[in-house]
Specification:
Number of strands: 5
Order of helices and strands: HEEEHEHHEHHH
Radius of gyration: 20 Å
Structural class: alpha/beta
Largest sheet: 5 strands, mixed
């Protein structure tokens, strides 16, 4: 049996620099005028039932046929401001540069329209760049959006540093533990999950600090002679 992990390289200054940058951002006190938003996305396989499930009897569990129908794929985007107990989820057919750019435009113009700037934490996927804004919108609009973003990238092999990944894991357990065959239905289910989680003010209590990293992950840090 194998277990798969994202294993960072040892004694890697680039990884350490990105990691400590993210940990510094997480250590900042809550500032309602400068939201810290984490973003992540995941592909999702839409699946339908090849046969109708058996009728559920009292005290029994739902019985599904092991065979299923592939109904296409889509991408789920998650944005979370954990210090405000808030998250936003959306579904798109693809995960192109334009999809990311349109999600960022929604974030800045609909969710945070009155904020001069937001801090955005995410991985360094090639679509996650300000260039995507310029590829998707006219230069004046792209610049207006880009100038409101302070971007901080998680290091390669360091996805565990993204709080939005924790939200994705919770969403997968709580909402995606069944087959969903239609993108509209998926969007409705995720919207209901988002509303419930926001209403209950669910949050992530991040404790790991740069000081912890320097002790527990010291193999990642360059070594120096005494």
């Amino acid at each position: 049996m194998n277990e798969y992990w994202c294993i960072p390289p040892k004694e890697n200054a680039e990884f350490v620099a990105c990691m400590e940058d993210i940990l510094h951002i997480y250590s900042l006190p809550y500032n309602k005028n400068l939201p810290v938003v984490c973003m992540d996305e995941k592909p999702y396989q839409l699946l339908g039932e090849a046969r109708e499930p058996l009728e559920i009897k009292p005290g029994d569990v739902k019985k599904l046929d092991s065979e299923y129908i592939r109904c296409g794929t889509c991408s789920i985007f998650v944005f979370t401001e954990t210090l405000a107990d808030y998250r936003h989820v959306s579904v798109r057919r693809q995960r192109t540069r334009q999809d990311w750019a349109e999600e960022i435009r929604y974030l800045l113009t609909e969710v945070y329209p009155d904020y001069e700037k937001i801090i955005l934490v995410m991985d360094n996927l090639n679509t996650h760049t300000k260039a995507s804004l310029y590829q998707s919108f006219p230069a004046p609009e792209a610049a207006a959006l880009a100038n409101r973003l302070e971007i901080h990238y998680t290091p390669k092999h360091g996805s565990w540093l993204n709080i939005a990944e924790i939200e994705l894991n919770a969403m997968t357990r709580q909402c995606l533990d069944r087959r969903i065959d239609d993108i509209q239905k998926l969007s409705e289910e995720l919207s209901a999950w988002e509303s419930r989680r926001n209403r209950n003010r669910r949050s992530v209590n991040w404790h790991f600090t740069a000081e912890d990293a320097r002790t527990k992950l010291r193999s990642l840090y360059p070594k120096f002679d005494s």
